[in-house]
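Lab notebook, bench 4. Still working through the backlog of constructs that have no structural model yet. Next entry is a single chain of 507 residues. Request: give me the structure tokens for it.
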Amino acid sequence: MSDKRISSALISVFYKDGLEEIVRKLNDLKIKIFSTGGTYAFIRDLGIEAEKVEDLTTYPSILGGRVKTLHPSVFGGILARRSNSVDLEQLTKYNIPEIDLVIVDLYPFEETVRLVDDEDEIIEKIDIGGISLIRAAAKNYNDVLIISGREQYPEFLALLNSGNGVTELTDRRHFAAMAFQTSSHYDTSIFSYFNKKSGIPAFRENINGAYPLRYGENPHQKGIFYGDPGKIFDKLHGKELSYNNLLDLDAALSLIDEFSENTYVIIKHNNACGVASRSLARDAWKDALACDPVSAFGGVIVTNTPVDEDVAAEIDKIFFEIIVAPRFTEAALAVLKQKKNRIILLRKEAASGKETYRSLLNGVLWQERDSSTEGTADMKPVTVRVPTPTEFTDMVFANIIVKHSKSNAIVIARNNQLLASGIGQTSRVDALRQAIEKARAFGFDLNGSVMASDAFFPFADCVEIAGKAGITAVVQPGGSVRDQDSVDYCSANGMAMVLTGIRHFKH
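Model written out:
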């Protein structure tokens, strides 16, 4: 059964704050408690019965507290598989009680490193028993629930109250995942402390999932990819992927996955320099290339539609690094494989990760991936003139592209085609001027086009420039104290504007 009733618990924590309510609830549910040292004294001071772990193991805490729980009578009760008859027979033979719940935290290693310079004191804050209990209980999540830190108490208490001491497998697996996160972070912090003197590379080539690259961002830099590209695509032809190739592929796949119609995307330095959606794949390629045929040189091409011989022949006319598609005909491959170094990737059905990471300073930034994509229903008209259906369609298209462009970003589009973008600028006005200049350089008439901005306009200057260039509709998140200035200009000059309420910064 996936449901398990908690009958016994082992509690051994460094921090006692927040523990009282948990212990009282366990006592109300008549759950037997085993405990150690200061935690045992804390529980008894509450007037609640508990059994000393040393009575269970028949050994006292030794070596100045370094060894308390490291004993078969403890770990046997945690690791025994309740569905395994041999495990249960051995518990009976050696008089080992089952332990269904483990509540443990870890010695404050990071805090100690911050506060003291005494290495002996720091070393004593490397937890051995606690980390072992966490890993053991998490490993046996089929039968055991692990609480690996006080920040989990509110969620755990809610679980106790709702289930009256009964947990489901999904609950136990959830807390196990958090436990392994705890142990991973703890071990990393210990490694970082020791590595200040050792200088060992934080990432190694000789581990599973490590793919050494030809070099990093530049030839003089070493690079390694940690992951499994085989889950994303099959390489059909060409040289090995580089560091920069992988960055461009991540940007390209994230963008192409936003479209359902036949679409081609051309990526250069993580930004789109060509995007077009059409009913015919050949037209999608032709119009994507027309956006900026100069920047397309040496770029990454990705499409969500099969590539046939005719389209392959057109694509073959330019130099590019990589092409990715869900399918290639044999005739198309024969054309594309004529260049030996050209990388051809067959896309698999694999979703993008839900998280992003970036290393900086002496740490790592984590965030959820920007998964918000606004449709017409999310676009609130705020001007006298409401956008036409065609303008709405183009604004959805442009807003998708600006979401995947480096800030500050402006995108100009019409008829589901990127006309130009201004990207990575320090001012939104500069981004807009860059986009207008590029569009005109490649012969685009901006009359009737739409503009998307990744963030609000602090002044009306951008919409004034856009209106004079022929842009008739604007999509932006809004949120500036001077939004009304831009709205008023648009209304007075026959332009339409919508607000989404969602900013799409990408740095």
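Notes after review: Residues 4-198 form a domain with the Rossmann fold fold (CATH 3.40.50.1380). The first strand starts at residue 4 and ends at 5. Flag for follow-up if needed.
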